[in-house]
Amino acid sequence: MSPKNANRASGPASRPRPDPQAETMASRLQRPLACLAGLICATLLLAGCQRADTVQRGHRGTGMLQLYDPAYAVKAVDANQIPEPEPVDEAEPDTPLVGEVHKNVQVLKDLNVLEFSRLMQAMSTWIAPEQGCEFCHNPNNLASDEKYPKVVARRMLQMTREINTKWQPHVAGTGVTCWTCHRGQAVPSGDWFKHPGESGAGQNIMGNRVQQNTAGVVTVGNSSLPYDPLSTYLNTETPDIRVQGTQALAGDNRHSIRQAEFTYGLMIYMSQSLGVNCTYCHNSRALASWNESSPQRATAWYGIRMVRDLNVNYLNPIGPLLPAHRLSAEGDNPKVGCQTCHKGAYKPLFGTSMLGDYPELRGPIVRPPAPAASAVVAQR
Questions:
Q1: Cα–Cα 20 to 30 A to 113, which of 34, 67, 205, 374?
Q2: How many structural domains does the chain have?
Q3: Does 11 reside within a domain?
Q4: 29-33, 67-71, 256-260, 280-284: range with highest mean pLDDT
Q5: Do both 302 and 332 map to the same domain?
Q6: 57 and 88: one domain?
Q7: Are 224 and 235 in contact (CB under 8 A)?
Q8: Which domain holds residue 136?
Q9: Chain-centre distance of CA 260, in angstroms?
Q10: What is the per-residue DSSP string for 50-84?
């Protein structure tokens, strides 16, 4: 064989061909290894997920199941503790009413001086534990209204008593106190302002997005739903909250898809505020049916109307009293919502009532008339 032919013999044609059986074995080994790697990755990803506890709230098969995140529930418990009640000094029959001792008492005139002093001490703990009485009062002239927190607190006391008397369909016998919202803070968490909205330039380029597809809006759970359902539904007296209508879209029927999207935004806010999912109030197979909903849906119905009443008649009117740092950048006053009281609990303070320790906040105290002087002499 010539050297030339020898070189040709050692070329590609003379190389050993791959063994098909060996390739098949290798591929068989690679598949389980790939599956194992995928299983490990999935396990690591799922390890970061929180497991959910379930509570059956209705008959099985009716869609009345609640899901709870244990870690979230623990945080809600920590946020819903109550302080020890103030000690009680028993009043004597001749203990004077507060108006006989202090000047410029406008709301709590029905209390005696001991009841009044005890409630004031409790309020300083509930609202301004560091500043104490001076947060609202001039210590050299307690009767003065020179500090705006005092004027606001007076209005809030009226609001608290009204909630405990007028809105019992929502708060029941549990009621509310200043602690329900404030929890030791001068400005309670969970208040809200009107969303500033989109700039005019953004709307000219993108069109009117009707508040949708805006990232980072916690109110609606960071979803693409309209970003300000609270101004739409919790700051006016008569808006309809609807997902579907009962007739075709014609005439005065406003039950549109747009309205449904705002409604879902509100429902997400309420769900987050109470730490529950939709089936706390609704039956998931018939969301619109009142007959198949839980009693909590009726409670929530009254709660929505209570919040509207408080914002329209109490929070908005005190807006002009507040300094600029208490307002939003656009000058809007703070308002209340579900989160202001609930703070992640299905019932504020998980249903613990403080009114037993502070009955003065239930409403004006009606005292029996004092005995006539002649009767007192006769008894002696």
A1: 374
A2: 2
A3: no
A4: 280-284
A5: yes
A6: no
A7: no
A8: 84-169+349-369
A9: 21
A10: PP-EEEE-SSTTSS-EEEE-HHHHHHHHHHT--PP
